[in-house]
Amino acid sequence: MKFSKTLICAALLGLGAQAQAAQYLGATGTGVTVADLSSPGLLGFDLDFAQRSQVSLSFAIEAQDLAPGALSFNALVRNLSGLGFEGVSLRLDGARFALPAGSLATDGFQAVAQSGHGVDRLWAKFSEPGLTTEFYIGNPLASVGARDWTLDLSGQQVGDTFRITVAVPEPGTYALMLAGLAAVGFVARRRKPF
After folding, report:
1. How far apart are CA 75 and CA 59, in angstroms?
2. Which residue ranges make up each domain of the chain?
C-alpha cells in the first residue's frame, strides 16, 4: 500500500514538473498585465493592456525547445476596448518566424484591415479603431481554421534568451511602418542576384 502511494505521488510530481516551452523570465513595460500560458511545445501568453504602451517578454531556451528546432507560438492581446487602438505590432529579438505564417485575427467586432510580417516582426491594423476588444496572434482559442506561428530557434543554445515585444502604437506609427516596409520591398526587388 505504501509503495503504491509512493508511485502515485512520484507520478503526480513528474506531471507537475513536466517541461514546458521556453522558460518565462519576466516582462518590462507599464500598463500591461502578463499571464504566461506556455505548455510543452507551445509558447503562449495573455496580455491585458490598460493603456497604449508596449511590453517586452523575455524567455530562456531550454533543451526540449531545441529538439524540434522550432516552437509553436500564440498570444491573446485583450482589453483594447475604449482605448482607441488602431492595431498591434510584435517584434522578435533572438528568434525568428518560420514558414508557414500563422493567423492574425480580432474578436469579430471589426476586421484586420491590413497586416504583414517578416522574419522578426508582424503587425496588424484594425478596420475601425476603438472597436476591437481582443486580438489573436496565432490560435490561442483553438479556433477552427486558425494557425499558430512558429518560432525558429536554429543556431540557439540552451540558456540563450530571446525577447518578444508587443506594442499598441500611437496613431500615425503605422504610416511610418508601411513606408518602411514598402522601401524594403522596393530595394529587395531592385537587388540583382550575384
Report:
1. 14
2. 20-189
Tell me the pairing of strands 70-78 and 134-137: antiparallel
CA 187 to the chain's CA centroid: 28
- Banded model confidence at residue 49, pLDDT cuts 50, 70, 90: confident
Closest CA to 137 of 172, 161, 101, 173: 101
Residue with C-alpha cell 486558425? 146
CA 139 to chain centre: 10
Residues 6+ apart with CB under 8 A from 39: 20, 21
Tell me the pLDDT band of 9, cut-offs 50, 70 and 90.
very low
Q: What's the DSSP call for residue 147? A: -
| Dist CA 91 CA 119 (whole Å) | 9
| Confidence tier at 17 by pLDDT (50, 70, 90) | very low
